[in-house]
Amino acid sequence: MPDLDLLHSFVSVVDAGGFTAAGERVHRSQSTVSQQIRKLEEILECALFIREGRQVSLTEDGERLLGYARRMLALSTEVREAVSGRKRVDVIRLGVPDDFAADKLTMVVAEFARSRPGVRLSVRCDLTSALTRALERGDLDVALLKREPGAGAALAAWPEHLHWICGPGLNLAPTEPVPLVAFPQGCIYRNRAIHALEAAGRHWRIAYESPNLMGLQAALTGGLGVALLERRCLLPDHRIIDAGLPPIPSTELALCLADTVREPARQLAMTVREFCEKEAMRLAA
């Protein structure tokens, strides 16, 4: 069984993104952290990190270890607090897509945290592909995921009706490649757009790529191209042009939980569920 101190250094390297920054977090030198990781790799008889200069990324074995390491460290903290009688703080880790009503949802979860002094909230906005991996690794307790309909268990799910959206001044020439405004690779909307265009025999090109919704919306307003998005992303100066482009099947917004979550996380999930229900009703009106 690995020493908890070694696991703490391992998790710190992952969270900090490197050995030097991890050393600062755990108040040790970079060389000491490196030695601890080497010792952990020797104990487990596998490589945990791929080292490329100052950048590090997890191997498959490292990804498998990460969820276990976090749970072991959390359990260790729980034991100490139970024995010492200190009040425990529940940390809830929530993952949400960048394009899902981030401002409104942030207000809802912030109010949830304010009403529960014993809860510490950690929110991560990212692409669904990254959030899915984080949920599987045990890095998240609750996550909203955009996915294919019915693709696994979920606390609740809502259909997403996708539309081709552009700015006021864009005119698509039938003989020219469709200029796509899209999230980076790994986004289900991007994949749906490309597959639909190719199936319809339309050429396409990536005209603008951004990991955040505000960038895409600005590109649409500026007339750089057309994006496949949910109607909630539509700004007043945008327009839907579904008639001129291939139809797109619905995707799904799913509210998912980690395999084992504490009651506060379930309470947050129910709060998010209520918010999503209201959003679905608002968009359907």
TrEMBL record:
Gene3D superfamilies: Periplasmic binding protein-like II, Winged helix-like DNA-binding domain superfamily/Winged helix DNA-binding domain. The keyword DNA damage does not apply. The keyword Transcription regulation applies. GO terms for molecular function: DNA binding; DNA-binding transcription factor activity. Keywords: DNA-binding, Transcription, Transcription regulation. PROSITE patterns: HTH_LYSR (PS50931). InterPro entries: LTTR (IPR050176), LysR_HTH_N (IPR000847), LysR_subst-bd (IPR005119), WH-like_DNA-bd_sf (IPR036388), WH_DNA-bd_sf (IPR036390). Residues 2-59 form the HTH lysR-type domain. Belongs to the LysR transcriptional regulatory family. This is HTH-type transcriptional regulator GltC. The gene is gltC_15.
